[in-house]
Task: structure prediction
Amino acid sequence: LATILDRVQGLILSGGPDLHPRCYGEEPLGGLGEVDAALDDMELSIAQLALDKDLPLLGICRGIQVLNVALGGTLYQDIPSQVPAAICHTPRTDKAVNTHTVQFEAGSMLHRTFGELEIWVNSQHHQALKGVARGLVVAARARDGVVEAVELPGRGFVAGVQWHPEGTWREDPFSQKLFSAFVNAAR
Result:
């Protein structure tokens, strides 16, 4: 993995199956979906290596969760059963449809990237950050309090978003701004 990272200028951790709770020291609860232990191990290792090499890193959906767990954080295994007042984070729409808003922390890197305190995003997840890892800073939340974005201050471009900007990049200027910021950091 280290050899691969020597050849890249940035890393995107994308969506995928649920992260197994063993990765953050918990037992599985009801509602846990499909898991892939080999993928968990590989992505946690590559995330840590990318951080060690100070590579720009963007975590998308599962990727924000991998970033958080790699740095010592924990997850809600199933939002509907663990966050009773949560909005629906798994609507029956495709990734091209924005379904709820997120509110950014004023002055955060992502707030500066988007130039707005609130944007509409799509949503396709039932896991989310619970214990935010030491060093990570919450950059945005949904109106129910669920963490939707984090960043790692003082490390160049290291950020994670819970939504899927790759699903809306053609028509959504905010998705375009996020990918442009990542690409510019990786140059």
User: Anything to note?
Assistant: The longest strand covers residues 137-142. The two ends are 21 Å apart (CA to CA). The mean pLDDT is 96. The longest helix spans residues 37-52.
